[in-house]
Structures are given as C-alpha cells and as structure tokens.
Design a protein that fits this description.
The protein is of the alpha/beta class. It has 20 helices and 15 strands. Strand 7, helix 8 and strand 8 form a beta-alpha-beta unit. The protein is globular. The N and C termini lie far apart (about 65 Å).
Amino acid sequence: MASKKVEKKPDRGLSFPTDSKGERSTTIAGKNVIAAAIRGSKAPGSAELAVKCEREKNWRFMYNKHYMNMVKVSAYSPEAAQGVAKAGIEYMHKNFEFVDLKDGSVSSFADYIKKSFSPFETGTIVGNKAKESKPLLAVPYKGEILRGEALKKQLTKWAKYGTLESDAAASISKLADGPLDLTGQHFVLIGAGSAMGPFIKLLEHGATVVAIDIPGAWGAGPAKMWERLITTARNSSGTIIFPLAKPQDSYASDADMFAGCGCNLTEQPGEIAAWLKIVAPKKRLAIGNYTYLDGDLHVKLSLAADAVISEVCKARPDTAIAFLCTPTDIHFVPDEAHNAALQHYGFHIGKPIEILLNLLTLGTRLVKNALPPITTADGSKVKLIDGLSVAQGPNYALAKRLQHWRAIVAYDNNHTVSSNIAPSTSTLSVVSNKSFGWAYAGMPYFKPYEIFVQDTTNALMAAVLISDVTDKTSVANPANRAAKGIKNALELFKFNSVHGGLWRAAYKVDSIGEVSALIYFIGGPKAFLPVAYAILGLIAFLVAKFLLHVI
C-alpha cells in the first residue's frame, strides 16, 4: 500500500531563507548566519574560520565548535564583538523572509519591517488589591517564603557555596529590605504567559505589565491563558495592558474579551512594534523576550521579537531591554568562577571514581570545565565557560545567540540591558522528560550545582531584572560600564549570574548528564560515593579471590 503523501503547509509570516533548491533549510541558514557573524569580527583568522563554518558537513552535532570560534573572535576586541553582533543581526534580518498573509508575496524580513502598520486596540485592567505599606521581596524556597534577613542569609549561603555569583546576591539583597514598590514602572513581556517569565512578581509589586502573547482566538487554551493573566492582574496591586482586536468597551463579556486578546509574533511583528511605539506614552518601557518553542519556531520567535525590540528602541530611546540567558551557552565568566571550577576539578574524595568514569567513557564524560584563558588584542586575558549542550540543537543556540547580539548592540547604544543567566530549573516541561528528570536528580553531586524549582527561579530572576532596571548604579546601565570595568560588551553577561553552579563546577555540563542519571539510580548524590566504593570494593574482592583460586 502506497504511503500517504503529507501535504506541506504553506509558509506564512516570518520564514527561514529559501536555499538554491527552493527549500527552507534550517541547517544552511544556521551555518550562514554564524559564518557571517564570524566574518563580521574582522579578527585575525576570522575569514578562514567562517569558511570552515560554511563547509561543516555535520552541523547538527558539530555546530558547537563554530559557536566557540565565534565567541573567541568576539573576545578579541570590543570592536570585534560589535562586528559579530551587527553582522549576525544584519544577515538574519536581510536573508530571512516574510510571506504576506494575504497574497503570499515574499519579501526580506528587513523590507517587511520597514512598512507602515496599524496598531492594535488597547485593553487595560487595573488591579483591585490595596498596596502594602512596606512591600517586601518574597522568594519561595523549599516550602518557605524568604523575606528580609532570612532572604539575605540564604543569598549569602548560595553565593558562598557557588550556586550564584556574589554580585547577584548583592543586587537581590539590596531589594530585600524594601519597600519594593514598582508603581509607575512599565515592563513589556513578550511571552507574558511563559513559565519562566516575571509576570506574577512584577504585578505583585505594583508594576504595569504590557502583556504580549498568542491570540485568545486560537482556541480554548490560549483564551484560558489570557483569563489567567487578566485575573492575576485584577487580584494584584499592579496593572495589565494588552493588545485587543477591537475597542475594550465593545466586548459583551470577559469571555468575549479573552478571545480578542493577543497577537501572533511571527505573523504580526510589524503591528506589535507599531502598537508598542504608542502604548503608555511618555513612560519608559523595559521590554523583555520570554518566548520559547521547539526547533525552528524558536528562531522565528527570537528574530520577530528582535525586530520588535529594535523598532521600539528607535522610537523610544530610553527603552531598557531584557532577556533570560540560558546557562547552557558560552559565556565570559569572572576570575572567581574560573578559579572555583579549577578547585572543584582538583582532588577530593570522589575524584578516583570520576577519573574511572572518564576513562571508561574514553574521555567523553566528565570533561574539565575550566578552559584556558583567551588573549585579547590588548594582551589581557578573559575566561570563558563552555556550557553549550549539543543535544539542545543549533536552532536553540541560534535563538539565544541572537538575543546576546541584540543585548551587545543595545548596550553599546546606551540602552540599559538586563541580560542575566538563569539556572537550570525543574519546570514541568523539563521533568516530564524522564531522562532530564533523572539527570537533574543526580546533578547536585557535582558541587556547587543546585536545581531550582520554577517559583524560586522566577522570583530570583525577577529580582535581578528589577534591580537592573531601577538601580541607576547597576551594571546594566551603560553609564556605569567604565566603573564596572567593562570594555567588551560581552563582559556584561558575566555579571549578576544565577547559573545554578554550572560556572563553578568541575566538569562541563554537556559531559555530566548520563553520569548524573547513573548517580540518581545508584541512590542519589548523598549515597553515590559510598555505594560506588562498595561496588568497587566488592569487585576487587571477587577478582582477588578468583586470582588466589587460580594460583
């Protein structure tokens, strides 16, 4: 029986470039973007590295080495970092395409975004909860709600252990004494309904949240999400502003309004940008991208959001921008984190077992985390961490790298940039994958890893965002870059990191997954070494007994 041919859905909105075969290959596009970015550095050897990138035949599993090359040439000089960021952004905007929703005509994404667009209607709901006299930052942690001195004590403990960096602990601690009142502060959340976004925490402290997410008209699920967002806002001391298909007072009921909320980021980025240019006039916006979807859709979301952010920054020069950085990426790290990784790699009670596991896997597992320093154009040394997880794939890496590029360009153009590393988090979607759940359960064996639950991560990262945007002395404010010692804008990412231990651990995160799962099955982080040594002892005993019997 002949197999049924699957009919390909027609392209709509933002799309990958068309290649020479008329296909929209994510592999070819991904290679070309990174090659263009590497060339843009104009660093020594960059032209040759770009050609190697373009000629890579196993992009899916070898893309990481080209990303490392790209970061290394970016580290060469501040100008090289800017060149990489601008070239990468420019290539994506000029070569990705936009398929018109009405007639199917195709234009470059760069040409599409230059057109005139009609903005959405605006909905506004003001919360009905009275403001506290002295609102305090609250962080849920292991069944408790930490505030004030208790929170500061835990932050100090995390920083001492190495789960987060000391400057992140200090930034959050400055907020802990309160009062934390965000009245008058406006935050645009692209992907407001995201599990990892700061929506609830911002409203909790009286902020105005401009919420952008998928259309409620898409069905019961999206409409329910808008009901949740708007109900949360109503029960808070904050305010929510959201896009509507028609004037707010024309809806007959809340249910009718929920279905009219929202917009399509990859099909309506021009309309979204037009709306954000006029929403909350004369107010400073902090606009953050919190979107995520699997595969090529993540790249499209990231690029669409990038265009929106760029357009808003042009129209509203005081705009701040925000991203949640993944720890599974290549980052500049402070000397203290590098030295801690070296220390954890040194001898300790579990080292013989770890050496054995490394040998048994032919050196592919438990690979040293601390990398040799990179020498820059002025002779200084910078430290990198290779946190890339190859299994996440090149599309994920590209989507996150585009956010880095936008942060670099915006920071050098005097926009406040809050772009901090968030920790690995046991969200429902992550732990529903059993292999991830097993690895996460065993990972804390490798000091100083700690896997946070979603509520803890949300509170911590919202706090760092708030500190970045509201504290005029923060490193996120480019006016302070000289005082903070930032020459290359890539150095911005080494500040205020809540990496969950990844930067300071002995081994690369991409080399501990299977071992972490093994640790879980043997009994967990605390039981692993006693059980492992007992097993080795038993094996040694049996081997010795056998040899004695033979002799």
